Amino acid sequence: MNIWKISIQNIKTKPLYTFLSVCILALSITLLLGIQQLKNGFKNQIETNLGKIDLVIGAKGSPLQLVLASVLHLDNPTGNISYAEANKIAKNPRIKLAVPISYGDNYKGYRIVGTTPDFLTIYNAELETGRPVKAAMEVVLGATVAKKLNIKVGDTFLSSHGLVENIMDVHDDVLTVVGVLKPTQKVIDRLIVTNLESVWDVHHHEDETAEHHSEHHHHETDNGEKEITSLLITFKSPRSLLTFPRKINISTNMQAALPKYELHKLYEYTSIGFKTISWIAYLILVMSCLTIFISLYKMVKERAFDLAILRTYGASNFQLIRMVLYEGLIIVFLAFLLGYIFVKMGLTIALHFISSNYQQNILEELPFMEDVLHLGALVLLMVVASALLAIYPIIKMNISTILSHEK
């Protein structure tokens, strides 16, 4: 007696039930895996992109905006600060590394960041080809930029003003690619790195030639004082984090923001949404197990007579249990396959959409085998429990009563 065959036969006799069970279960699996992916992707981005940055100093405004703009490069800056004042702060003996960054231009949506060679060390970035920036108007490309725009060492291009791609406001200073960085999976992959002089020069020429462009955020003030967007700081000891930011916030016209704290707060906010969706998904999971239980229970009730006859022909309780269990397992397997395919498709579409529309993408695909295994174990447990409950009447049945009643 082939138990698998009987299970498959059972499934075929009630296609709608099976289809419903599989769909509901697949839906909860898709939601749970998808949420896990987003959560991990987000967390991972925050952790890897902070690199060695303990503190960001910039113009007064929203600290979260300053962090998003200067660390994740996802927002517009809060304004500019004086380079001379930033330099004074940078000389503090408690600071291990202070990296000025200045930006305001882009090429095809990728940000051009003027900075010092230390910028690469924050992200442990190394050159794949070419050499570092030595003179003004030279740039080094992040790995993603080079790949997506298909430009290499020796190529030249014109940047446009602002942080979003536009053809209205293109600078006439030619930038030359001198190097390409190795992929780091960090934000630097999406940046075009140059020195501070390049940013200042481009804007200095602009200011001389275009007095009518009053909306330019000048990187040089009227008295020729140089400005930067923000200063990224690494301390020698974490103790400095307690006193240093307060001192800056109180005694200067700049603000100091702690990226770890700000991004953690942001993560906490989004976690509430993630949690809500997770609970809904678990609820759907419980409902799908109920559906499976009802479907199996109905089968056991309807076919009590056949099952009793099987018993008289020498089928053991264990074989009957296996018959119902296999049916549950087939449903779980199909649902998991469907759920996995949905998640993969959803992520691929989302990633493709984001990377083609937004150059600054913080979504990424992570291996999620561990989540799949955890969820698999949980779903399997619930379905096996449903199956065992549904089967209870068979084991308790009195064969002769059932057979005499049916006849």
Q: Concise description?
A:
With 407 residues, this protein is an alpha+beta fold. It has helices spanning 3-13, 15-49, 63-70, 83-90, 118-122, 143-149, 196-209, 240-251, 259-302, 304-312, 317-357, 369-396, 399-406, and strands at 55-59, 81-82, 95-107, 110-115, 127-130, 138-141, 156-161, 170-181, 192-195, 227-228, 230-235, 254-257.
Element order: H for helix, E for strand: HHEHEHEEHEEHEEEHEEHEHHHHH
Low-confidence stretches: 212-216
Strand content bin? 15-25%
- Tell me about the largest β-sheet: 6 strands, mixed, barrel
| Average pLDDT taken over every residue | 84
Helix percentage range: 55-70%
- Counting structural domains, the number is 2
Roughly how many Å apart are the termini? 24 Å
User: Count the strands?
Assistant: 12
Q: Mind telling me the C-alpha Rg? A: 31 Å
Shape field: elongated
Q: How many helices in DSSP terms? A: 13
Structural class, please? alpha+beta
**In what order do the strands lie side by side in the largest sheet?**
3-4-9-6-8-7
